[in-house]
Amino acid sequence: MQKNVLITGGTGFIGRHLTEKLLERGYAVSILTRSSKPSTEKVSYYIWDADTQSIEESAVLNADYIIHLAGENIAEERWTAKRKAAILDSRTQSVQLIYDTLKKLNKRVDAFVSASGIGYYGLVNGEGICTESTLPANDFVGTVCQEWEKSADLMLGLGIRTVKIRTGLVLGKNEGILKKLSPIFKRGFGSVLGSGRQYMPWIHVHDLCMMYIEAIENKKMTGPYNATINDSTTNLIFSKELANSFGFSIWLPNVPAFLIRLMLGERASLLLTGRRVSSDKVKKLGFRFQFKNLRKALKNSLK
Hints:
By secondary structure, the protein is of the alpha/beta class. Helix content is about 40%, strand content about 20%.
């Protein structure tokens, strides 16, 4: 019997790629969306709104697995108090709504898989390698990730296997971080940010999607897993490789850290800090990354 995967945030960058790969593997896909969309032969759309705690319950009733990707983009706007609250609430209130609906309907899915971020370990620089057992940070992003994961753990109380995917920078075809950087580098104006020594743990969107599929199919997966390539890529290395992808060498001086902070405020930490992150835990389960080389990952993402 065909299994149904319900996705929150399914119309976003990662959600679109994940939907495509799930369909290729024979799954039925349902997507929770805030705006009405007509269902297709392959994908069913259902209305929900975490702010008003409303949801089409049939979406949950039909689900065999739930993948939770929904959440306000943490990098999009200046971090005012209002924006910070929206970033946190969009992640936790949405999980609460799904939890309450599952409990109300006495419905149990085979697995609940939630996105999280390597920001769990904090927006700081350091040489130590973070594993899933590394203590969380108490800065804004670290707190958001902790609360996000704590919300996901509500599902454990319903006897549902729960997996949390702590994701690094996602590389995809001119999407995610490359959507912002490519236009600059394509014109030959790309440069290194700050010192350039900050680490940039990354993952190709293909591998990230396959990790989500592994999480629903592999019953041994439970708890948190880091989704990054630990190749010690720094901003200097990343910037040089991206410039190389467009056929030029970086000639501009580094963008001063103070200027980035002036432009972005507290949000500048997303660009100026970074830690090394290990993905050994998921590898030990037999998961294999297809894109382990940054140059090849960028070439695939930019073609």
